Amino acid sequence: MKITAITVRTIRQSSEAWYAPDPIPAGVVGHFDFPLVTLETDEGIEGHTMEYCPLGQGRGSAAQFIDVFSVDLLGKNPLHHEAIWQTLRMKQRHLYNITPTLWSTLDVALWDIKGKAANMPIALLLGQYRDRVPAYATCPPQTVPTVERLAEVVADKKRQGYSGVKLQLSGGSALDIPRLRKAREVVGDGFPLMLDSSAVLTFEDALKIGRVLDELEYEWFEEPMPDAYVLQLRKLAQDVRTPILAGETVALLELAQYLSDGTIDIARADAHHKCGITGMIKALGMCEMMGFELEIHTAATPLLDMANLHLACATRLSRFVESHHDMFRFGLKGDPLRVHEDGCQHLPDGPGLGVEIDWDWMENHTVDVMRTEA
Known about the structure:
- This protein has about 375 residues and is α/β, with parallel strands linked by helices.
- It has 2 domains: about 5-120 and about 360-374, Enolase-like, domain 1 (2-Layer Sandwich); about 125-345, Enolase-like C-terminal domain (TIM Barrel, Alpha-Beta Barrel), CATH 3.20.20.120.
- The chain has helices at about 15-20, 60-65, 70-75, 80-90, 100-120, 120-125, 145-160, 175-185, 205-215, 230-240, 255-260, 275-290, 300-310, 360-365, and strands spanning about 5-15, 30-40, 45-50, 130-140, 165-170, 195, 220, 245, 265-270, 295, 320-325, 345, 365-374.
- Strands 4, 5, 6, 7, 8, 9, 10, 11 and 12 form a 9-stranded mixed beta sheet that branches.
- Helix 4 (about 80-90) packs antiparallel against helix 5, helix 7 (about 145-160) runs parallel beside helix 8 and helix 9 (about 205-215) runs parallel beside helix 10.
- It is globular, with a radius of gyration of 20 Å.
- The two termini are about 15 Å apart.
């Protein structure tokens, strides 16, 4: 089997859905662009994947798939994903202005092809551990401007049947601690709550918040400071009981250092940030051998989050999958990323990613198409 062509469609969504019920703020891009990549083969099997581009970088990323990476894919056997992965890993050494997330995205399409060729879901190819994973809802900061609004949102997520709720709050201790207390009051004791501070806190503020999280029994304290602040993260992990979950922006090859030196308590990773499904297999193996949990992060595109669901169903290390804004569940028939009555996302049983793309919807939201052939 050989890859014969690559097509990249730029799928556009208005930013209105992200900021609703408020209007789109001034000074931000008014749309999210999602490059939808299709790898074609000489055996008629296609692999699909999709990149995340909310800040105006969609067309640039689409062009990079064609201009930078097509030479590494065209004419190659997609089933040799490890060989392709190693080639792209070595190439990354000199891709100074491109992060590994682009070729991480391409790796997902290779696994989609592999699953279809084997007529198996990707999770089954990986040695399936389970067929469903508890899902928690992430509440974007745009939806919680006040304590009262936060109470409404958290209560609504619990009513919808989610297995937990994560707050994204980055206003600092004075603003956020009342919200953290209100969320616990709303859901009651024992219901899983998490906090993601999006890497904006000082150590002093993080320590104040961490001690409140200890009192309120939150599941984890996510990215309180930038991943690069290794010393402060290590000190915080020693000073609070609530597990520090970080490493989202850490390169795959750097993750072992964060685990071995006590910088974090729980690893954060996904198919987008950790070099695709192939890279996540390596990250999961590393964490299991070192005794760490690895919580799988959302990738905020429907196809990458399907890849994350397959990974979560192939490991015991991740307690949850993350379910973000509804705007990221587009273009797939049957809404396969929905949360079921048992509070879980369920693994589809189709081959590869196991989804059916709604091509009419995709074509109606396509603003550009690039294509190259072998």
